[in-house]
Model the fold of this input.
Amino acid sequence: MHHHGYLWTGPKQRFDNEALRRPPHPDPPPAGSKAELIQRYREVTAEFPTSDLPPLETAYWLVKPRALVRGTWDEAKEATAWIGERLAQYAPRFASESDRDAARLASMVNSLATRLDSGADVSLGFYLERPSYLSLAVVTCSPNRSNPELTCPVR
Done:
């Protein structure tokens, strides 16, 4: 088991485009469906696996391009340290003063290693200044507990 880290920042409006954040349905629209539905299905099918947008289900980061992996670690403690470093880096830009609280962030980071050691994924999100959003995720791989059929993007 190992862990992959992902980071995304961008406009909240783009983050809110949920259609591009969920995998396409495994079956295409039935014959005779409206042209708009067929076009939307084609768009999502083409864009979901290549888009840098955070998926709604954390495990689906594993189907995204390998270039989006920000780090790979064998130990949960290493992955947790990476998250802690990113939180320290972005905390001054958090929109909410309570999200910037160092003690709160340290407590959050301290709880993550146990979750990762158990095989769970971790996904955190914070609103930043100028309606932007920060998404941090660490996905447990080989296999992923929630979606074991997803293959490792790196190994």
